[in-house]
């Protein structure tokens, strides 16, 4: 099956430096991807180039096998919704949704009405008077109801409160089950979207450092906790990502899955082994990648950047 999006050696250069530095990845049809990274890592820039809103400095982009730039055959099959999405301020919320519906032949009016009710969106209120959460609701309604073959969500749901975000996640996964398409969503709320996404792309300093299934990403990092002396025997080598000690006990985070002999040693020594969550895996591996290529970053500082 051919990818619907193919990116090869994508570079975007500004006077201050490279926003993208050789980005390459494919998106397959009928899958939900998480596109994750620190603030300014390159997610928004990549999405803007894929949707022909920015020029790349070099590299190639193919969407449905074609160059998307000024290509109505391609652009009409994609929907891009971002956090700071702009709408004409004179429009009401209803007019913004109606205008969006004209761009997408697969627009589902009934679904839009249900989502308006779910998010309690005041349709008669002008866009300029909508709250941040209400503007976010407009964006996610457009993204879901467009039924575009490829939908890019660049954190338009950040303005939603926890209840509204859960409504979005529930409606997204239910609608995707009935109408499969390719969805690429960026978010700093990694653990919230972990159950939605099938594959994760992690970008750092303009480079892709992870391109894995969620299962691969979470199993790639293991936490060991138990007696300090026993942890010492497991802590040899470059696989150690983090170590914390509190008296005679401690915790160790390592890259990879312990082999059989290490697992046996852990069991005999009273050490508990467990996989970490998606966010913790990404935090540790991003910190390790940054330490290998630039100034050292601690996992605690990465946690703040990704949350």
UniProtKB/TrEMBL annotation:
InterPro entries xref list: ABC_transporter-like_ATP-bd, ABC_Transporter_VariousFunc, P-loop_NTPase
Keyword ATP-binding listed: yes
Pfam family membership, one: ABC_tran
Key words, A-Z: ATP-binding, Nucleotide-binding, Transport
Keyword Transport among record annotations: yes
Signal peptide span: none
Superkingdom of the source species: Bacteria
Protein name: ABC transporter ATP-binding protein
